[in-house]
Amino acid sequence: MSRPSREPQLERLLRRIDALIRKGQRASSTFTRCRLTLFIAALVCTIALYRMAWFHAGNWMLAAFVAIFAVVAGYHNRLENRIHRLRLWQRIKQSHLARIRLDWAHVPERPHAVPAQHPYVADLDLTGTHSLLHLVDTTLSSHGRERLAGWLLAQPPDAKTWTERQALVRELAPRSRFRDRLVLTTRLLDEQEINGQRLTAVVQHHHHIPHLRLLLGIQTMLALTTVVLGLAALLNWLPGYWMFSFGLYALIYLMTDQGEELLEHAVGLHREVERFGTVLRFLEQHARRPGTALAAACRPLTEAPAAPSVLVRRVARVLHGISVKAHPLIHLLCNALCPWDLFFAARLQQVQQLVQALLPMWLDRLAEVEAASALATFAYLHPSYVWPSPRTTGGRENGAGPSYTAGDLGHPLIPAAQRVTNDVVLEGLGRILLVTGSNMSGKSTFL
Questions:
Q1: I want to staple 316 with a disulfide (CB 3.0 to 4.6 A). Which of 16, 42, 192, 274 is the partner?
Q2: How many CA atoms lie within 13 A of 190 on its CB side?
Q3: What kind and span of H or E run contains 162?
Q4: DSSP letter at 157?
Q5: Which residues of the chain are under the pLDDT cut of 50?
Q6: Where are the strands (E) in 89-143, listed by range?
Q7: Peptide linkage before 156 cis (omega within 30 of 0)
Q8: Which residues, 6 or more positions from 131, have their beta carbon under 8 angstroms from its beta carbon?
């Protein structure tokens, strides 16, 4: 295992990204000064024209400055978004460089649950701080994190699963742009992981509101009646009869269970659902090339009658409407004008019926790609590492026993300059290796 060759490549890329960020920051400072200059110029010119009683000229001048300011602000906002993307891209590449160097302080760590009685996880440093899972984990969701941990902790898979899994990892290994953009697409909206358990809980938890459709119809009619009667009173066509319809509307609202438990549970989840939909859309766009391992892994997403990303965005819109409850004054105003809570409770029941059977499959396919992408990133960062391959000749059917052969084998958690590698050959039933030595001499590392 020679010194990885990706390190100088990443260092050059990070220098280019840093130069682009500095260039963007200089341009952003110029835009900031330009916006301030425009504001002061608009203020001075408009006041001067108004004081000279040139009101039409002042109005035109103000409109022109507002239009110019809006154009400049639009370009400035786009520039800031690009700088933000570059900073996220820089952090992704910096974490890759840290993984190569085993610079643990700059390798993101996420918690992983470990079986209490696992036979080898503790001895082989598979989980925990400065572990193999800490080193390779680039997953985006809780399901992806659990899938990657499962691949390391539940061995061995059957031959078909092993072959399909390795085919997907090998296909994704050279596709660094796809893998990094998958991470970037998610982090642009939020840097927290996608919590599949929370999404599943919202979709599968049905809160029954008695006579929901009837209540929604009655409240809708009362709200419309209040609006019509209110306009009539405003135009002096009728007395203030709107107070009676509004009073009845408010009374029914206060006496009705609006599904508070379910609505409170769904508040604030719309951003997470939006990210999930964005990631699904990214996979749908990049997994349509037939005959590829990625297309096979994402087939349930790309061949569905309705695009999963479209259905997820529909859920996000409903949850966004429910999230108004996080703003009490706006929530009160919305429900005063229309049966807001009842409407979105009904919409949530509809989308729950649409996606509750499909969501586990979507999370499963995303987790599969995430876990494969994490291992593919590790393979890409260490091009000198060897891919394992099963023995295809001399199997048990020919009378030969099982065998294991490895050359120049070393521990990936030890820096290359300090690593001692070994050749290992185990052939036939009944053959063992007896490893002895004093404490802290490297027996577990060798194993």
A1: 274
A2: 18
A3: helix 159-172
A4: P
A5: 1-4, 395
A6: none
A7: yes
A8: 125, 413
